[in-house]
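User: Hey, my collaborator sent me this sequence without any context and asked if I could get a structure. I don't really work with proteins. Can you help?
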Amino acid sequence: QVQLVESGGGLVQAGGSLRLSCAASGSGFSINVMGWYRQAPGKQRELVATFTNGGRTNYADSVKGRFTISRDNAKNTVYLEMASLKPEDTAVYYCYARRFNGVVFADYWGPGTQVTVSP
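Assistant: No problem. I've predicted the 3D structure and written it out in structure-token form, which is a compact way to encode the shape of the chain:
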């Protein structure tokens, strides 16, 4: 099992910045991918950014150039630096991890942290 704990959400004005953190804990195989998804009211959960343990990153087009994902493999922690925030970035942000358990890949989710961007 992998437990994910997010922190850093909150209320910010448009144009502002926030930093999200997510720490993973649990024993077993190392985590292959960590990242962030978000879900706005009335919308489906969508990818924000991911970071593989090989160092590759992937971003949603809507956040490219504004958000930066980073990862500390030693601490099993992933960060999301969000800048130039827009009201449309308002959503619950979920930390995500994927780990190979020896048989299959298993996905894990944090409880979510609210990010609200006011106009």
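In plain terms: The longest strand covers residues 91-100. You can pass these tokens on to your collaborator as they are.
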